[in-house]
Amino acid sequence: MIRIYCLFAIAGMVLFGCQEAPKKETQEPAAPTTPAGSALYPSIALDTLEMLWAKCDYIDFVFYNLNIAVSQNEPNAVKATIQHIAGDVPMINNACKPEGRIFFQVAGRNALEGDFYLNNNCVYYIWYKDGGKTPFAANSMTQMGVNFFQDLFKKALQQPQG
């Protein structure tokens, strides 16, 4: 388990560590989805995203159906992951199940946490407050974010279980 965790941490650093983070002013469009359900939450506040961009120093990903966890602490990787959050509000489909949870940390404290959804009809984040208990906002995921998670899943499934 530790070997897989380390492999993904290193792979994440290698994938994003050598890339210069693009400027935040140009928001990538959300990944295409089939609208199903209803928009229940507003978008996360822009000042929250700006705070994360300026101060977030660590991100944890916990996957519900895979025996892996991934962390990022390299500044360019952290900024790239923040860019996975699209500005638009998704249509929430209550039939969809989250793939995992993402934690954005600032100086060792959770600044934002949410579930991420990645199937054909559900490609978005739902954000929580009160220690991860109360949903309060939702955002679509960019295509860059979808590609990032699909790559992680592909690598996880290729790893020998041991």
Condensed summary:
This protein is α+β, with helices and mostly antiparallel strands and 162 residues long. The chain has helices at 2-17, 46-55, 75-82, 143-158, and strands at 58-63, 69-72, 100-106, 109-119, 122-129, 134-140.
What global shape is seen?
Answer: globular
What's the gyration radius in Å? 15 Å
The residue fraction in helices comes out at: 25-40%
Uncertain spans: 1-26
Number of domains: 1
Look at the structure and give the mean pLDDT. Answer: 80
What series of H and E elements makes up the topology? HHEEHEEEEH
Which band does the percent of strand residues land in? 25-35%
Strands ordered across the widest β-sheet = 2-1-3-4-5-6
Total of DSSP H or I helical runs spanning 4+ residues: 4
- Span between termini: 8 Å
Structural class, judged by helices and strands?
alpha+beta
Number of strands: 6
The main β sheet shows up as: 6 strands, antiparallel
